[in-house]
Every structure is written in C-alpha cells, then in structure tokens.
Hints:
Elements: H1 10-69, E1 75-81, E2 84-94, E3 97-106, E4 109-119, E5 125-132
Antiparallel strand pairs: 1-2, 2-3, 3-4, 4-5
Amino acid sequence: MEAPQYANHTGYIALMTVLAAGLVAASITVSLLLLGVSQTKTAIISDQSERAKSLANACAEEALQQIRDQTSYTGADTLTFGADSCTYTIADLGGENRQISAAGNVSTTVRKVSITISAISPLITISSWQEVADF
C-alpha cells in the first residue's frame, strides 16, 4: 500500500511555519531593541537639557550676586562644573537698568536665559526672566 501524497509535504509545511514564526519573533525583538535605544537617547537628551537649564540659571544667579556686590559691575565670566559650564554677560543699559544673558552648556546642549533688571538700589528689581532661543 502506498503512503498518501500529503504525508510528503508535512515536514515542509512544519519547516515553513517554524521559519515564519522565527522571522516574526526576530522582527519583534529587533523592534523592541530599537525602541529601547531610542528611549535611552531621549532620556539622555532630556537630562542634558535640564542640566543645561539649571546651569544657565546658576550663572544668572552668579551675575545677580556680582551686581549686588558691585552695582557698577559689567562684564562676562564662565563657571565650570566638571565637563559642563555656563557663561554670563552683564550689560549696562543706562541708569540702573541691566541686561543679563546666561547660557548653560552640557555636551552639545545649550539653554539660555535673558534677565532684564530695572532697579539695583536699594533692592535688585527683575522685570523679566525668561528662557530664550538666542540673545
């Protein structure tokens, strides 16, 4: 007696099913790995951005302290914190008006703040403190 015709194809169908399932599983695994890498990069960039903003504000505070210590102070300085840094510039706009520009740098990320001061004495009066794209 002869074996049925479909019996010869059973192994082939099983092999193709296993290969297709393996291809789907590999695709899902690669997608999850790429998603994880993307999420990690996003988290790193977000952390750098927050640190740069904090540094810009720290330099702005240092500039305010310089004005408090010496009301006629104008100029620029850089503060370094390990591999990160921030810079500030104080410009005299006439009278008691001053403009502070501060930038925080972390890796390739830069955040900037601009502060407008309308009075220095007896207290420093800040009329504007805002993050800006550029000075």
